[in-house]
Write a structure and sequence with these properties.
By secondary structure, the protein is of the alpha/beta class. The chain has 2 domains: 2-154, Rossmann fold, CATH 3.40.50; 158-239, Arc Repressor Mutant, subunit A (Orthogonal Bundle). 49% of the residues lie in helices and 20% in strands. It starts with a strand and ends with a strand.
């Protein structure tokens, strides 16, 4: 997992969690309707999938320069970058431009709200259709449409595909206790995502206390490239980026 640092109050603070398991979300924070929905998407995806969703307004940095460095590093390393250009907020357009220069086209998705309150003008529509028409674009009038199409992009991420395949394997091998194994698998992956690596002993005891065979589940996590152990006296379990 990649790490980065920002300067704050004279001290260097380490930040972690940005990796190929990350989704970058950008939208007009002044549009409460869209921003509120992006907040709910972040919660939903992080609750149900072993990915991290990054919203640039959540950054804590020591100033504008640190904030920009933090955002650009996240865009570079994120597996998927989603930009809602409704109202064409300057910061979102700037971040989109940086993504165009640093990411593959297949890693970028553009969204726009076409409801009357979305305020997407004909001039903006022409710009989107003519200059970057090769990018994935979602024009929506309901959040249901947006969510369905965005989820299709999320599900193409290797981490999510591997997670789904692992769940299928759990259902095949442990049909009688599949629900327990699936719940603990997701909880463990979220803990590794949110807290960081855990010791091999903690990994074993955590699962044993919940009635899950740590050796078998550990083998599946490694097999499907979701988490792996390091060995030695200070060996830990960590996510595979």
């Amino acid at each position: 997992m990649a790490t980065k640092s920002v300067q704050k109050g004279g001290a260097r603070k380490r930040l972690s969690g940005i990796s190929a398991n990350t989704v970058f979300l950008a939208c007009n924070f002044g549009n409460k309707r869209v921003k509120g929905h992006f907040n709910s998407l972040k919660r939903s995806w992080e609750d149900n999938l072993p990915i991290r969703v990054y919203l640039s307004d959540k950054v804590v940095a020591g100033g504008a320069r640190d904030l920009w460095q933090d955002i650009t590093l996240t865009i570079k390393e994120a597996n998927l970058a989603i930009f809602d250009v409704t109202s064409f907020r300057p910061n979102v357009v700037l971040e989109l431009g940086f993504a165009l220069a640093n990411k593959q086209a297949g890693q970028i998705v553009i969204c726009r709200d076409l409801t009357p309150g979305g305020r997407t003008s004909p001039e903006q529509t022409d710009w989107l259709l003519s200059d970057i028409s090769h990018l994935s674009r979602i024009d929506y009038k309901s959040f249901g449409t947006l969510d369905k199409k965005l989820l299709q992009h999320i599900e193409r991420m290797s981490t999510v595909r591997n997670f789904y395949n692992l769940i299928k394997e759990i259902e095949r091998q442990y049909s009688s206790v599949a629900a327990l194994y699936m719940t603990e698998t997701l909880n463990l992956l979220k803990a590794l995502r949110d807290i960081g690596p855990i010791s091999r002993q903690e990994f074993k005891s955590r699962l044993r206390d919940r009635g899950v065979d740590a050796k078998k589940l550990g083998g599946l996590l490694a097999r499907f490239s979701l988490a792996k152990p390091t060995y030695g006296r200070k060996g830990v379990w960590k996510l595979v980026d």
